[in-house]
Amino acid sequence: MNTAKRFGLVLTLALVLATGFGCAKKQVAATPEGTSAPMATEDDAARRAQLEALARAQQIITDAKVYFDFDKFDLKAESKEVLKQKADVLKKFPSIRVLVEGHCDERGTQEYNLALGERRARAAYEYLVMSGVNAGQLEMISYGEERPAVDGHNEAAWSKNRRGEFKIIK
After folding, report:
1. Is 152 left (phi over 0), alpha (psi -120 to 50) or beta?
2. Closest Cα to residue 121, out of 46, 65, 160?
3. pTM of the predicted model, to two decimals?
4. 3 burial type by CB count under 10 A (0-12 exposed, 13-18 middle, 19+ buried)
5. Which is nearest to 131 in space by CA: 81, 168, 78, 76?
């Protein structure tokens, strides 16, 4: 055999052996029915628990909104409770980054509502920071009246549109 063929054969054999060593089989345990199923390792269980905790944390951050009175940006007692829960989660999960959004109802000029939405977002932002959340985890934006949560031209709709919302950005 010539040298090139030998080299090719040795290289192929080395690659086959290398791939064989890199592939480990999963451990299999017998199930009550007598079939086999992959065993969950402790690492898998811990990873799954972390992912579930992260999903719950993200839900706490995004689900609850804070609401404001007409032409106001001060936080109500119930809003502070909502923000306290969000702060606890954000301190526990420092990798989560959140966009704090300020929203208004349709009354007022566009410029006024953008400014009011920013004050509302800032009120929530500052409460979170004062509660111990790292400011680097938070960003703010005002949408003013641009993104209503509820369509309508009455107090029931307006009260749902005067809000602060929280979106995961990372």
Report:
1. left
2. 65
3. 0.72
4. exposed
5. 81
